Amino acid sequence: VVTEFVFATAQYESGDWDSAPLVPANLIDSVARYTSLAVAPTGAIVSLASDDLFRFPLVFLTGHLPVRFTDAERGNVRRFADRGGMLFVDDHNHDIDGAFHKTAVEEFGRAVGPLAQLPNTHPLYSAFFKFPDGPPNTSHELNGWGDNLVHSHLLAAMRGDRIAVLYSNKDYSSEWGYHPDNKRFLSIDNTKFGVNVIVYALTR
Amino acid sequence: MRSRADRVRRVVEWTLRAIALAALVALLWRALRPPGTPRVDVAGADVTAALERWTMSPPGERHVLFDATPDQRTRDWLRALARAGDAVRWSSARPLGAGALVAEPASDPDASTTVRLVSSAGEPVSLGDAAGLIDTLPRGGTAAFELATVEGALRASGATFRATTAPRDSVVLRPVLVVGAAGWESKFTVAALEERGWRVAARARVAPNVEVTQGPLGTIDTSRYSAVILLDSTGASLAPELSRYARSGGGVILGGSAARAVGLSTLAPGGVGRRVAGVAGGVAGATPRSGLGAFRIVSLRPDAVILESRDAAPLVAARRIDAGRVLQSGYDETWRWRMAGGDEAAAAHREWWSRLVAAVAYAPLVARPGAPDVAVDETPYSSLIDALGPATALDRRLTRSIDPLAVDRLLFALLMISLLIEWTSRRLRGAR
After folding, report:
1. How far is A129 from chain B (nearest CA, A)?
2. What residues contact B106, with CB distance under 8 A and at least 6 apart?
3. What is the pLDDT of residue A71?
4. B334, closest residue in chain A (CA to CA)
5. Between residues A59 and B429, the one the model is more confident about
6. Taking a contact as any Cβ pair under 8 Å apart, which residues of chain A between 54 and 73 contact chain B?
7. A161 touches B: beta carbon within 8 Å
8. Taking 90 as the threshold, does the pLDDT of residue B248 lie above it?
9. What is the rounded average pLDDT for all residues in chain B?
10. How many whole angstroms separate alpha carbon A154 and alpha carbon B430?
């Protein structure tokens, strides 16, 4: 008997936390498809201000709008990171001048610590699938949407040698926001990096 | 015609001669008399002076009245007297505390020392080292301390005893191997042990034939690992290897339902029963493990020792297998304690896991470099009984009120003084 992994999405007071509703199901499908991990068939939504946050050591957070944490949310995020939890944050705007990026970086800097570039040789990129060039690019980056940049690195706030906050400007929320059945139309499954994030969180 | 004063003087001289003669006769009689009823020499307050006196005297009956457990030097001296022919007995004016103090290296990566102190209930005891006072037990009893550092010798002092010890050994700790499916329990078990200072190797199964690994991996033996933790049944194929490892001295921890696996059940202290749920909200309370779900341990083997229970159901148990130890913990979600517990939960979770590992770890002893060269007296009361036997009530009728050597010295002094005065008196009046 192994506790099932439950994919949790963070709910926060400000912004549109539920802007990528198809991502959880898609990543759950990928985890079940490629690994033998016990994974719950449906995800969970957890408020950052709630004690329930501590039932889910990996939490996905996304949105387009400014991120302003309440005191309770900020305190919980700090405690969550200190206890060993990991937040995977994705900028749904894919825009480093956008409201989400500016405010989220500031909020996580206050709550957990400054975000810095994660080396592309980090174990995250080899936790399950191999990504020797670092984070895979998204079609939104390659199409020049958002900030018209292809981001070569992810950002991270660390606790020791462990990632406490993994921050992406690559808009995986859009890249992975489709029904899992449509993977059959892709020559390469673009959610594989999501499997790496989950396996890394479960093993490091 | 002699004057009256001259006559008195002569009478005094004759008296002095008589006294000297009597003292001489008494001394001769004391030296040559046949042995009579043995008398007992009693030493009380000044034992050292009595020991010196007894050492210079012929063998006899000795009785020492202690008001506190004697130190090692006194015990050794009395034991030597006993072996030289003295009949040495002892008693105490008040009950002596049976205190004991031991210090041994903890099987813990922070190189701490475990100090165990036992004293009679009711007797206040203080524990200290060369750096000063460490702690006190106002009412005595039993206590264990984990000390990060110890300066010089450790001393436990009570009203009736003083025990001394010093850490002399340290332990060699090797990495801990954690095996399980990738999941929160394996992740946070590894994290807890690493944060506590253990070197951890891990194998987390993520897919068939795919494992995420860390640390030094290789054959499971005591030269490589101090302990192996199997968190679930994914390590069942290691059962033969683990059996050899445990029998050769290694420590094995079977978590959750791992003991259900074929091959591992023969190692486990018991079987795996049904899972009991934790108390809602319990992890944030005063007894956080009550909030954790766990598998009951059933069908305990006769040699198993229960370490933790809930509602009379064993949840943690251990047993020895030849030179090694196997511990079975029914908990399978201790990570919830770390994540959702109170302010001290993460530290408590680390300590709990570290203690489990320390309880079974293969940790050979080596001499501690720079260990203090001190005389160790860990169990003064039992050492006293070992040296002199149990306490014996003193028969006051047999005690000597006067030291025989002192009597001899007194008689000799009387003899010499009498002769000196008699001689002086005689010479002063002109006689030879």
Report:
1. 11
2. B112, B113, B114, B146, B171, B358
3. 96
4. A3
5. A59
6. 54-55, 57
7. no
8. yes
9. 89
10. 125
Tokens of B268: 């486990």
How far, in Å, CA of A189 to CA of A32, rounded?
14
Q: Which residues of chain B from 132 to 161 reach within 8 Å of chain A, CB to CB?
A: none
H/E stretch holding B412: helix B404-428
Tell me the pLDDT tens digit for each residue of B90-149: 888 788 878 899 998 888 887 788 899 988 878 889 999 989 999 999 888 888 888 888
Q: Is B286 exposed, middle or buried (0-12, 13-18, 19+ CB in 10 A)?
A: exposed
Q: At what angle do helices B47-56 and B72-83 cross, to 10 degrees?
A: 20
Average pLDDT in the A42-53 region? 96
The minimum CA-CA distance between A144 and chain B, rounded to whole Å, is: 36
Confidence category of residue B398, pLDDT binned at 50, 70, 90: low
d(CA B164, CA B376): 5
Residue closest to A120 by CA, chosen among A161, A152, A164: A152
Q: What is the pTM of this model?
A: 0.78
Cα torsion B376, B381, B384, B386 to 10°: value is: -90
Write phi, then psi, for B416 (nearest 5 degrees): -70, -40
Given a contact cutoff of 8 angstroms between Cβ atoms, the answer to whether B247 and B323 are in contact is yes
Q: What is the DSSP string of B247-291?
A: HTT-EEEEETTGGGSTTTTTTSSSEEEEEEPPPTTGGGSSSGGGG
Residue with tokens 């606790």: A159
Q: Copy the structure tokens of residue B224.
A: 């490589």
Rounded (10°) CA dihedral A21, A22, A28, A30: -150
